[in-house]
Amino acid sequence: MPDVVLNHEIARRYTNGESRLTVEGDTIRALINALDAQYPGIGAVLRTDMAVAIDSLIYQDAEHEPVKPDSEVCFIPAIEGG
Fold first, then answer.
1. Residue 56: which region, alpha, beta or left (left: phi > 0; alpha: psi -120 to 50)?
2. Class for domain 3-77, per CATH?
3. Which of 11, 19, 56, 70 yields a CA-CA distance of 20 to 30 A from 34?
4. Residues 6+ apart with CB under 8 A from 12
5. 64: helix, coil or strand?
6. For the chain, which residues make up each domain, given as ranges?
7. CA-CA distance, 65 to 7, in Å (whole number)?
8. What is the pLDDT of residues 4-58, one digit of tens each?
C-alpha cells in the first residue's frame, strides 16, 4: 500500500498528528477517498488546497494519476499565483 505523507498542519487538524500513513488505493482519487473515510473532512482539503507529489514528481491536478503499491505520495500546499 502506498505511503502517504501529510504536512504538519493537516496532520494536526485531521489525523491526531500522524503525518505518515499507509493507505490503500491505486489512484490519488482512491487514496483521498480512503483517507476521507477514515478521517472525515480531510478529503475536501486535500482536493482543493493541496498539490500532490507522487514519487517526487509534483502534480497540480492529480486526481486520476496512478499510484503504485510502493509509491510515496506527499500532499503539499498548492502554490498559487502567476
1. left
2. alpha beta
3. 56
4. none
5. coil
6. 3-77
7. 20
8. 999 999 999 999 999 999 999 999 999 999 999 999 999 999 998 889 999 999 9
